[in-house]
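Dear colleagues,

As part of the handover before I leave the project, I'm documenting each prediction I ran so the next person doesn't have to rerun anything. This entry is a single chain, and its sequence is reproduced below.
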Amino acid sequence: MIQEFRARENRPSQADLGRDGRAPEVVPPQLSIAERASLERLEQLLKPTASVDLGALRQHVYEHPHDDAPRAVLADALSEQGDPLGEFITLQLASYRQSPSRREAELLRTHAVRWLGALEPFVYQPTQSWLEVFERGFPAKVRLQREANGTVLTQSEQWATVEDLRLPYGFQFEPPYPALRGLRRLEGLTNRPAHPLPPLEELVVRADLITTLRITGVNHLGLLGFNADGLEQLIRHSARLPWFSAVRSLGIGMGLTALTLGEALLARLPTLHSVVCSRAIGHAFFESEQWWERLSRGGALTCVWHGRNSGGEKATAVADVLTPERVRALTVLRLEQRARMPASERAAVVQAVKQALAASDERPRETVLFGIKLLSP
């Protein structure tokens, strides 16, 4: 695996090739200074003259949680010693953002609890598979147990690989947490921390907390349950939040029932191009052409269901909202489920969407219906 990264360093770029297609004798390195330093440290740790320090390799993963190279090197070292975690890391690096293999699921069924290590007592076990928790060989998407408290996030470096953290209700989140250096997404915050939140790509939080939180910036903002008064307060104070106007993606749970308030919120989000709805079809903004006009500029729409209503009702709602004209305007359309949904219910929703797609002369660049990606015509 190290040889692959060394090959990057020695590979000439297209601009470095001569007219005859041959590389010059001196080729500038393709790795950054930070990447070369990281690679040199890994090579020192793996010198054949000394035994491999697996603890040091793991720590290197924790120090660089978004970098694949330390994980790949650790996987090689573990595989040489017959540790199945090495095979698992290698498989997950190869299948990242793709459908996981059957072998990954088999390994997790046998070893997931052991691989969670110090995190195991605090991690909520998923209803379907541990594949919901592990990415790139390590715990990445964690929902904390209801009994967990803020001190657990200070007890192990293993928290470094967690990118998506879902807090239980009433959890007192009080940063800084140095071990959470890989965190990208935080959901379920209910208190007002005394210190600023770490930089995040996605924050899902109660709307009435937004104006009191110290946030440096966030790309996706998810708003949990709120009423009209809370929404009015958010709109009124949003001008004082320097990061708010830069939000590019908005997630809406429940409470956006007033059409005028929805359009007022949209006016405060000039760069918004993506919407995620957890109560997908019931929101007032679906009745607003202003929202659809915004999404038509290369926008993305994700609708998430929780399996609460009958399939017939949902299929009718989808057909009413996702008209051929609106489907044509979208760049990305995704339908997702977060709970068990009867097959007949899911089929009714899929059929309604496919009918809208068939009636449109243009289709979104990407359409994913409950995990199944439709091919573009």
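The chain has two domains: 2-82, 141-374. The mean pLDDT is 81.

All the best with the project,
I.
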